[in-house]
UniProtKB/TrEMBL annotation:
Name under which the protein is recorded: Branched-chain amino acid ABC transporter permease
An annotated Gene Ontology molecular function: branched-chain amino acid transmembrane transporter activity
Localisation: Cell membrane
Matching PANTHER family: ABC TRANSPORTER ATP-BINDING PROTEIN, HIGH-AFFINITY BRANCHED-CHAIN AMINO ACID TRANSPORT SYSTEM PERMEASE
Ranges annotated as spanning the membrane: 6-26, 57-76, 83-104, 110-128, 140-158, 164-183, 209-232, 244-262, 269-288, 294-315
Organism for this UniProt entry: Piscinibacter koreensis
Extent of the signal sequence: none
Residue stretches in coiled coil: none
Its membrane topology: Multi-pass membrane protein
CC annotations in GO: plasma membrane
Keywords from the named record: Cell membrane, Membrane, Transmembrane, Transmembrane helix
Length: 333
């Protein structure tokens, strides 16, 4: 790793270390808020792989998040609470749906791809909204927290608050580390090439459809991790988790943070979540807090106008390789 790579890595490691010690000093409310931010950071990282690293703008990414959340709750409703079964099932459900969606939608491009992913997400939304399987518009409750046990001994009980927090932190670190390493691999370089010029990649002998489909399914599985954690955290899921505006929210996260950077995705999740909490505060805005969406919209417009490269542009450490990569970090971090 170059000196610039190490400098990029230091703030991330410091942030992860601070997250590890936060529950020791933070109140229960702020610990839950940080847990929510970490879950959304995983969700944002999953979309960053698709949008920032592959150049595929999806407006239906919430479907994979919501499907994993519903599978988690439905399995506990069926009295299946083993973490070794629930988590893989949630991820496989998201990945399987992504495989079907991607196999069809990736035959299109541009605005057509965006609209097809939105259409498939809305189909999934109405399956849970209009049928008894998902409890309708009211949603369904988690019937028991997933437990990891070996030989009758409980290793992890996600119903215990600190345990869920640290499991989410480990999964966030693992997701970030996995993507950072993957983007340096041949597969990651191929995705970067597809984003830059897909036609040239095909001329070079790469079967770009397979690479894009693999990235699409992988991003859905990572979104499934976030959906699983969210279901366990809230104990309730409803069809809004699959809605188009939730897909828009996670897209805003990576835009605010800076598209093309893994660190930017996490910064965007932090920024958008904190802005939502800020503008909903009646202590600060009084009765006008009911119109927090208006304030949030104005703040986002201001951020995009003043920081066209996102929050990561304020702390980005340039290097020579950036110029060769057209201004984007070569490793996507």
């Amino acid at each position: 790793m170059s000196r610039a790579d190490l400098l990029r890595l230091v703030p991330v490691l410091v942030a992860f270390a601070a997250l590890a010690f936060f529950p020791l000093a933070g109140s229960a409310f702020y610990t839950q808020l940080v847990l929510k931010i970490m879950i959304f950071a995983i969700f944002a990282l999953s979309l960053e792989l698709l949008v920032g690293q592959t150049g595929l703008v999806s407006f239906g990414h919430a479907a994979f998040f919501g499907i994993a959340a519903y599978v988690t709750v439905l399995m506990t409703k069926a009295e299946i609470t083993s973490l070794w079964l629930v988590l893989p099932a949630a991820l496989l459900a998201s990945a399987a749906y992504a495989l079907a969606v991607g196999a069809l939608s990736l035959r299109t491009r541009g605005i057509y791809f965006i609209m097809i992913t939105l259409a498939f997400a809305q189909m999934a939304y109405f399956v849970f909204h209009d049928t008894p399987v998902g409890g309708g518009s009211d949603g369904i409750y988690l019937m028991g927290s997933p437990i990891a046990a070996v030989g009758g001994a409980t290793l992890l009980d996600l119903g215990h608050g600190p345990t869920l927090y640290y499991v989410a932190l480990v999964l966030l670190v693992a997701t970030f580390g996995f993507l950072a390493v993957m983007l340096r691999s041949r597969f990651g370089r191929a995705l970067a090439g597809i984003k830059a010029n897909e036609q040239r990649m095909r001329a070079a002998g790469f079967r770009t459809y397979g690479y894009k489909l693999a990235a699409f399914v992988l991003s859905a599985a990572l979104a499934g991790i976030a959906g699983f954690l969210f279901a366990v955290k809230d104990g309730l899921v409803n069809p809004e988790l699959l809605s188009w505006h939730f897909s828009g929210s996670v897209l805003l996260m990576i835009i605010l943070g800076g598209i093309g950077h893994l660190r930017g995705a996490m910064l965007g999740a932090l920024a958008l979540t904190l802005l939502q909490e800020l503008f909903q505060s009646e202590a600060l805005f009084g009765s006008f807090a009911k119109h927090w969406q208006l304030l949030l919209g104005l703040a986002i417009i201001a951020c995009v106008a003043l920081m066209p490269n996102g929050l990561i542009g304020l702390v980005r450490i340039p290097r020579a390789a950036d110029r060769a990569a057209g201004g984007v970090d070569g490793d996507g971090a």
